Write a sequence for this structure.
């Protein structure tokens, strides 16, 4: 669905479409601290330098297609990547 690779941006927002369940894969390196990832009203964190993480979201109960809004807040100096796929 989409991929974003970033070096140095601490805040980023984007949107994607998803019809069914989807997975968000995230990794961060080059900094210490936590990254906050928000998808619509769900929020989860990831500690930089701990290796990649994945979170799967199921279809919304009302069958809504999207778009879905994603926000990333990373520590200063972090190099990070986020991928959304079904």
């Amino acid at each position: 669905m989409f991929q974003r690779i970033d070096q140095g941006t601490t805040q980023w927002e984007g949107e994607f479409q998803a019809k069914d369940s989807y997975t968000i894969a995230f990794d961060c390196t080059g900094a210490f601290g936590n990254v906050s990832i928000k998808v619509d009203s769900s929020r989860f964190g990831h500690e930089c330098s701990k290796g990649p993480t994945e979170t799967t979201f199921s279809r919304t109960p009302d069958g809504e297609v999207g778009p879905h809004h994603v926000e990333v807040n990373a520590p200063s100096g972090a190099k990070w990547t986020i991928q959304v796929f079904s």
User: Anything to note?
Assistant: The two ends are 7 Å apart (CA to CA). Residues 24 and 49 are 18 Å apart (CA to CA).
